[in-house]
Amino acid sequence: MNKILTRLAVASLLVTSSLLSSTSIMAQTLKTVRVSQIVEHPALDLARKGVVDALAQHGFIQGQNLDFKFATAQGNPAIAVQIAKQYVGEKPDVLVGIATNSAQALASSTHTIPIIYAAVTDPVSAKLLKNPQKPEGNVTGLSDSSPIDQHVAMMQELVPNLKTIGVVYNPGETNSLSIIELLRKATKAQGIKLVEATALKTSDIQSATQAIVGDVDIMYAAIDNTVASAIDSMLRVTNMSKTPVFAATDNYVTSGAVASLALSYYQLGIQTGNYVAAVLNGEKIENLPAKTALSDQIIVNEKAAKKIGFSVPKSIVDRATKIIK
Amino acid sequence: MIELENIVVTFNPGTILENKVLRNVSLTVPDGQFLSIIGSNGAGKSTILGAVSGETPLIRGSVKINGQDVTKWPVHKRASLAARVFQDPLAGTCGSLSIEENLALAYKRGRHRGWPMAVNNARRKIFQERVAILGLGLENRLGDSIGLLSGGQRQAVSLIMASLSDSKVILLDEHTAALDPRMALFVMDLTEKIIKEFNLTVMMVTHSMKDALAHGSRTIMLHQGEIVLDVEGEQRDKMEVKDLLEMFSTVRNEELSDDSLLLS
Amino acid sequence: MSLFAFLGTLEIGLIYGLVALGVYLSFRVLDFPDLTVDGTFPLGSAVAAAAIMAGVDPWVATLLAFLIGGIAGWVTAFLTVKCGILNLLASILTMIALFSINVRIMGRPNIALLGVDTIVTPFENMDLAALYMRPLFVFVMVLISSFFIVRLLNSDFGLALRATGVNPRMVKAQGGATNFYIYFGLALSNGFVGLAGALFTQLNGFADVTSGAGTIVVGLAAVILGQTLFPSRRVSVAIFAIVFGSVLYRFAISLALSSGMFGLQASDLNLITAILVALALIAPKLKHAKKLRQAVQKSQKEG
């Protein structure tokens, strides 16, 4: 009997402590923001930083008039759901969902608390909203879909007589599938051959790159969480084969791609933060149209280009917003 | 009735380790007969039981139980016709289940196992009656794990299990070999009791010539895969162990003299 | 913790209680380490989501998820029983194959069901009561499933199933078709995991191919945690224990998520799970060693 009692005591202790673990008592002027992120990697982390900085720019400071918390689900949708339940239960003023699964988990847990999503490539097919111009529910946000046509044009500018583009992606990521489809259309329209390789996890990126790098004129590093987490291993391969890499996001250029036409995830985060601040100041969701973050940042990495003996055309260097030497 | 016809069993056929364990063995055990099987190690006595139970694949030959040709039947199908008690008490029972659960498994041998509760009051009564004859007090502990019992007690329960279903054939594979002398005696007495009460047909493999003669009505001896001795009735009743031994060494000596002939 | 979060944690703990039931059937009853479940959970999600989007009635879609999950278990059993592949490896093969199959079924890696009619929709339209109806609904499903499994395992059929995982040679000697039991056990096990996936998808509005990673670990944690707290040879106690273990595990995660509590973060989850399961596995051994020591000390005193 003693043993059963002890065990029940331990179990109830566990349950009680999780029940009691709560956020601090909030003063009336304290605004609460809760951020749910699907996984931690540089691009998404930058977006989150952008949110924090934007809020600060609008006068919301953590500890003073802002109660800001975030949690990451480590790529696990079930954890994303638990985070959603936890945060919705805290009745924050605004919820932020970074990436599709986290945003979906939040959206299914509440139809009243405002949700601003960040870095969701296709919010309409993710059923987060129906009408991007005038969001009909409690959800709006910033999409990170790439301007694929612009990217292909830029790659043609980088490599004269471009014949083949190579791309590695994770078919298990929704965003990547949309990007690949757009890429297929765009390259076909331009008469360029697209060579694809798939990687189901970060450790597959290297072998996937090795499989196709020899057949292509340029590698396209897409916005794909798996690629983002293993960009270094991809670059190791392309550096050895002296193949230039074109980046869809600025992080990749810093790591060693030769050029990028990117949206800045940090800027995406800032724009998301702007929306959050607007809602905190009383703005309604329907007046905040769902936007796609602008891609206007051209970054050139001359150091990386020199390493593989590639010369970036002057026309691009002149338009660059930043040059890494 | 058990009928073995022209059984050939070879281990590792076609390799260096090829071993013709049973060479063209034929044997008929009539209903109600208690047959004991003896022989030196490797002579093939356990293999003969394996041929009947289905655990040993045959190169050639056929096996019939109660007139049914079971040669192509898998082990679990033949179990409906013949019960078995293994040498290792742990092999014949499920250690993590209770005594009554083990009995319930045996109770359904040969019958369709479906939705009805495995252990209910009616069955428990039956089990209590059967187990009571052991005189071990187990009928009051049916819910205990069978793992709490000693090897001998488990073997005793195995015997009860073997007599629980409708099958009239029982295969005993050196079932007292792993027990201490006192327990072995107890189990052997129990074996006699059960066989008599249910009028079973028995094939008992034993390494003890004393037991082989003391129990049953017929004894065969296997040597190098063949039946070299088959005694029953009055001739057998008069025999003692030394007579068996004499017969045993006669067979071996004949083999030996063949060798010595070759060598000289 | 808010009431909303409490009920939400309870709800997901109960959904994974079905996973725990499945893992109990394979791992504990059949002694078969079955990693198929990492693929079966998203399979159930995929089947339910794809069917519902195609206009199939949500209840039928859920049943389909159960049946097709069962087929996945059947495949693993086939690879082991008929093809002689080691049980763990066979399950990994099925699990890997299911990843591609799941993407095929859905047509894309993620299907959203937000705003689409599911089996929970009638409850969601109840406004305030919906908060309680959802976990209650899952609770009823888990209750029915549990009762069914307890009754099954206590039947003649179930007893033979249980014995197969302990001593298959003995079961065969008692006329039990062990191969059939393995097929049945794995199919039923994965059926429940598929059902869990279907419920998860409909309750949370999305199906994602990545939702399966780590399912076996969650199931094992629930089974081991529950059975360490409530050890018993009785099937009814075991089943209650593992469902309780699943819920408890989710509350433990909640604890970790409420960052600020001991400075724990969500990224510490895997480590916490590993420690939890390891402790649960070591505890009985420590207890046994302690008993042994006490017995030695006692006899030394007497002697």
Features:
heterotrimer; A: 325 residues; alpha/beta; Rossmann fold; 2 domains; 13 helices; 13 strands; 44% helix; 20% strand; C: mainly alpha; ABC transporter involved in vitamin B12 uptake, BtuC; two-stranded antiparallel sheet; 2 strands; 76% helix
Question: Would you give an account of this structure?
Answer:
The complex is a heterotrimer of chains A (325), B (264) and C (303). Chain A has 325 residues and is α/β, with parallel strands linked by helices. Chain A folds into two domains: 27-144 and 266-293, Response regulator (Rossmann fold, 3-Layer(aba) Sandwich); 148-264 and 296-324, Rossmann fold. Chain A is 44% helix and 20% strand. Chain A has helices at 2-20, 42-57, 77-89, 100-109, 148-158, 174-190, 205-213, 225-229, 231-240, 250-255, 265-280, 302-307, 314-319, and strands spanning 31-37, 66-72, 94-98, 115-118, 139-143, 164-169, 193-198, 218-221, 245-249, 259-263, 291-292, 295-301, 322-324. In chain A, the strands form two sheets. A seven-stranded mixed β-sheet of chain A has the order 7-6-8-9-10-12-13, with helices on both faces. In chain A, strand 9 (245-249), helix 10 (250-255) and strand 10 form a beta-alpha-beta unit. Mean pLDDT of chain A is 88; it is low at 22-27. Chain B has 264 residues and is an alpha/beta fold. Chain B has one domain (2-263): P-loop containing nucleotide triphosphate hydrolases (Rossmann fold, 3-Layer(aba) Sandwich), CATH 3.40.50.300. Chain B contains nine helices and ten strands. Chain B has helices at residues 45-53, 75-78, 99-107, 121-132, 151-162, 181-198, 209-214, 233-238, 241-263; strands spanning 2-11, 19-29, 34-39, 60-65, 68-69, 82-85, 169-173, 201-205, 218-223, 226-232. In chain B, strand 7 (169-173), helix 6 and strand 8 (201-205) form a beta-alpha-beta unit. Chain C has 303 residues and is mainly α. Chain C has a single domain (3-302), classed as ABC transporter involved in vitamin B12 uptake, BtuC (Orthogonal Bundle), CATH 1.10.3470. Chain C contains twelve helices and two strands; from the N terminus they run H-H-H-H-E-H-H-H-H-H-E-H-H-H. Chain C has a two-stranded antiparallel ribbon. In chain C, helix 1 (3-29) packs across helix 10 and helix 10 packs parallel to helix 12. Chain C is globular. The model of chain C has no long low-confidence stretch (mean pLDDT 90). Classes of the chains: A alpha/beta (325), B alpha/beta (264), C mainly alpha (303). Chains in contact: A-C, B-C.
